[in-house]
Amino acid sequence: MGNHVLCVDVDERKIALLNSGGVPIYEPGLEEMVARNRAAGRLEFTTDAAAGVAHGLFQFIAVGTPPDEDGSADLTHVLAVARSIARHMTEYRIIVDKSTVPVGTADRVASVAREVLRERQLVVELDVVSNPEFLKKARR
Ligand SMILES: NC(=O)c1ccc[n+]([C@@H]2O[C@H](COP(=O)([O-])OP(=O)(O)OC[C@H]3O[C@@H](n4cnc5c(N)ncnc54)[C@H](O)[C@@H]3O)[C@@H](O)[C@H]2O)c1
Fold this sequence. Notes:
The chain contains 5 helices and 5 strands; from the N terminus they run E-H-H-E-H-E-H-E-H-E. The strands form 2 sheets. It has a 3-stranded parallel beta sheet with strand order 3-4-5, with helices on one face. A two-stranded parallel ribbon has the order 1-2. Helix 3 (49-55) crosses helix 4 and helix 4 runs parallel beside helix 5. Strand 4, helix 5 (105-119) and strand 5 form a beta-alpha-beta unit. It is globular, with a radius of gyration of 16 Å. It is of the alpha/beta class. The chain folds into 2 domains: 1-47, no CATH class; 48-140, Rossmann fold, CATH 3.40.50.720. Helices cover 38% and strands 16% of the residues. Bound molecules: nicotinamide-adenine-dinucleotide. Nicotinamide-adenine-dinucleotide binds at residues 8-11, 14, 62-65, 77, 80-81, 98-100, 133.
């Protein structure tokens, strides 16, 4: 869609693979799409969270949420990324929950992020948006 996207992951091997033109998941047409957008300079990959937070207004959280022992979603990784965003942000950011999470998670994400901002004694606004699926309207 023409957006300039910087993807952050803690998995160095995955990022190295993506930066060498590989794609770690299979989806028809995805490899070509990734190659086209990398070549156009619109799609980049890094392990540098600070660079990710500096990159753009919208910060998508899309980490795994494996089922906990009681079957509920484990939010450890989601909340870790929320804290990481707050540790690095210096101006207004919109955090988008893309991970599959239960109702109420946006409040928890906002709350842990604001806690970190308070610890940093930084007065910066943030908002949290829930976007559990990509609901782009199909073109006919
Ligand atoms: N795959 C889909 O089409 C799809 C669609 C809608 C929602 N979701 C949801 O999105 C979430 C992720 O799904 P997935 O299939 O991409 O999972 P995945 O396990 O393939 O990828 C998650 C990635 O997050 C990385 N990660 C973990 N902790 C991190 C951190 N602190 N900072 C940066 N990166 C970190 C992992 O290294 C891993 O590469 C899940 O909650 C899933 O339900 C997925």
